[in-house]
Design goal:
heterotrimer; A alpha/beta (297); B mainly alpha (229); C mainly alpha (120); A: 297 residues; alpha/beta; Rossmann fold; Alpha-Beta Plaits; 2 domains; six-stranded mixed beta sheet; four-stranded antiparallel beta sheet; 13 strands; 36% helix; B: 229 residues; two-stranded parallel sheet; 7 helices
Chain lengths: 297, 229, 120
């Protein structure tokens, strides 16, 4: 497998604040990655560094085997769509699409038009006059029609309704099947996208928390519920990532695959076992920091 | 596709900002002056500074290029270097174009329809038109480029160092200027300063402006290289 | 988008199970071609690589086999082997659990067999 992005101990410090802390990972060719984590976890900073829009404080970063900074061979292969993208005030939707055609070597004009239809976008309208959802659709169209070997979407669908989001997922998978490329998708809507992802990176408080295949995370945790005393003896020696109490009733989420022996002993103790989805897993893993924050304040 | 050319084409898509708005501003200024001149009951020549409007507009354009087009260009995976070169190429072409049209208008005003029949001298200005049409072309071009670069450098500074950087520079600049003015008064430099400038033609000054503009341009390139969005 | 997938179990396993279900139910007779990974991916709204992994799982178990340049086909005898496998799973998943639950409730094996007969 060819590594498209190679980050080694990538770090970004703003004054006293370490936004990205010694993050190392590899992005492999033609896979769809999910870059997940809470707001302010450092995801956007990482994506800005990959695209040379921000500079790392320390660490090494190679994109398509080279430094991305001021490197056309690298940059022309990247399309980075972000929620905060600025456009010239006077530009209309068609100006943006025509400009994208100038700079992305694989730009497919016919496909862009097809997407404009799918998202019902008014091409003549000025960007400034678009609704938030339409603005997101412009980014999505640029991201898809550029067919860049590395396409990065950072929260691409602010203001888009469920129908439009589902159009995005369908179009992305459809076009990806025909024109495989490397995609990094950063989002909060984990439940919606998890099945599109092949690999998942989770960043929490600037640190890389998880770096695994999506399917390996399904069934990575389970929740047991039952009487408190029995739960306590069952979870002894296990890694509990979440636990809740209701009277004498307790539920605990355990990190780790459910072993047949554990399943038997849980069943024997009359405990209920429920699977945990990827979204729940990530929420449990990253909310530890939320609790820390709460006690600090 | 050459990406520097791409940047020029990207700018050129903004027809309103580059091709219509400067002339609308200049033309409205001209029309107001024309109406006033037509109603003023005197026989002397009326010389106005309305032409300045298009030059000031160029400074604003320099600021907007950096604030609006730079982040967009980076979003289109354009290199900072290519954005800069494309911007320089675009503003050079625009400055040449505008200067040629201004010279043409000056020629019409001066030699074809003298003062538009109402003694108004809006394009054919004394001192600037002293050296003939070619020197006038160079003057317009140089001043326009210079003002654009001032705006561009200012905005680059803002991009690179944020608001605080701009404030620090503004305060430092004010202190230096105040100090110089104070010294000029104290040491009675004013007469010699006046004599110094009187010795130069507008063309001389315009030519001296060119290396200054190049310095501004190099400065903004260095800032832009490390600017983030 | 797509048909609901359970996000708490590996999707490639679920894909393999659905193909198995189809073979058992007769929707995919032996020696017929199964849809391509891209078709599976589009239909279920999942990543093609994940769909491919599910299909390959069944290739490893010799339920499916690959015809070069054409695609994946259901192997002869696949249905029978799947039925055998499912019967074992049925015993583990349902019969054993049922007997455990019956014991908890004090239902004797005789009573349990009577209950099953009544239903049948």
């Amino acid at each position: 497998m060819t590594a498209i992005v190679e980050a080694k101990r990538l770090t970004k410090v703003y004054g006293q604040h370490t936004a990205v802390d010694q993050v190392s990972f590899q992005i492999e060719e033609n896979k769809i990655y999910g870059l997940l984590g809470r707001n302010g976890a450092g995801k956007t900073t990482v994506m800005h560094m990959i695209t040379a829009q921000l500079f790392q404080t320390s660490g090494e970063l190679r994109v398509f085997g080279a430094e991305p900074f001021e490197n056309n061979e690298v940059l022309r292969q990247i399309c980075f769509i972000k929620e905060s993208q600025k456009y010239p005030d006077s530009f209309g939707v068609n100006d943006v699409l025509e400009t994208a055609a100038l700079f992305f070597p694989n730009w497919d004009r016919a496909y862009a038009n097809e997407l404009v239809q799918a998202f019902k976008l008014p091409v003549k309208r000025r960007i400034k006059k678009l609704s938030r959802g339409m603005l997101s659709a412009v980014g999505i169209i640029v991201g898809l029609a550029s067919r860049a070997p590395l396409t990065i979407f950072d929260e691409p669908y602010l203001g888009l309704d469920a129908v439009a989001r589902s159009i995005f997922y369908d179009k992305l998978m459809e076009d990806y099947a025909e024109h495989p490329r490397t995609v990094i998708l950063s989002t909060h809507l984990i439940d919606e996208v998890s099945r599109l992802l092949e690999h998942i990176l989770v960043i929490d408080e600037g640190k890389l928390l998880l770096n695994e295949e999506a399917d390996a995370l399904r069934g990575r945790a389970y929740t047991v519920t039952g009487s408190a005393a029995r739960i306590d003896s069952f979870i002894a020696g296990k890694k509990v990532i979440n636990s809740e109490m209701l009277g004498n009733f307790r539920s605990a989420t355990i990190y780790g695959s459910l072993l047949a022996s554990d399943q038997k002993s849980a069943e024997a103790a009359g405990l209920d076992i429920a699977p945990v989805t990827i979204q729940q897993l990530i929420v449990y893993l990253t909310s530890g920091s939320a609790r820390k924050e709460a006690t600090v304040r | 596709m050459n990406r520097v050319q791409g940047v020029v084409k990207m700018y050129a898509r903004d027809k309103w900002g580059w091709f219509y708005l400067p002339w609308i501003i200049l033309l409205s200024s001209f029309l107001v002056n024309l109406i006033i001149a037509a109603f003023l009951p005197m026989d002397e020549k009326i010389v106005t500074g309305g032409l300045m409007s298009i030059f000031i507009y160029m400074m604003v354009a320099g600021i907007l290029s950096m604030f609006q087009t730079f982040p967009f260009a980076l979003g289109m995976s354009v290199r900072r270097h290519d954005f800069f070169m494309g911007t320089m190429l675009m503003i050079t072409l625009i400055s040449i174009g505008i200067s040629v049209i201004l010279c043409l208008l000056s020629f019409i005003e001066g030699d074809v329809i003298d003062g538009w029949g109402v003694r108004l001298y809006f394009f054919h200005l004394p001192y600037i038109s002293d050296g003939g049409i070619l020197s006038q072309l160079v003057i317009y071009f140089s001043v326009m480029l210079n003002l654009y670069m001032i705006g561009f450098l200012w905005a680059s500074l803002h991009r690179r160092f944020g608001k605080s950087g701009v404030y620090v520079l503004a305060i430092a600049g004010l202190i230096i200027i105040t100090l110089l003015l104070y010294m000029a008064n104290y040491f009675e430099w004013w007469p010699s300063i006046r004599d110094f400038f009187i010795g130069f033609t507008a063309l001389d000054i315009a030519l001296w402006l060119l290396p200054i503009t190049v310095c501004l341009s190099v400065g903004s390139y260095l800032l832009l290289r490390r600017a983030t969005v | 988008m797509g048909i609901m997938m359970d996000d708490s179990r590996p999707i490639f396993v679920q894909i393999a199970e659905r193909i198995e279900d189809d073979i058992i139910a007769g929707g995919l007779p032996e020696e017929t071609q199964v849809p391509s990974t891209n078709q599976f991916a589009a239909f279920y709204g999942i990543n093609p690589a994940t769909a491919a992994k599910g299909v390959n799982l069944l290739v490893d178990e010799e339920i499916l086999y690959k015809k070069r340049g054409i695609g994946m086909f259901v192997a002869t005898g696949a249905k029978e082997r799947l039925m055998e496998k499912r019967k074992e799973q049925f015993y583990e998943q349902y019969v054993v659990t049922m007997i455990q639950e019956a014991e908890k409730l004090g239902i004797s094996i005789d009573l349990l067999t009577d209950m099953i007969r009544k239903k049948g």
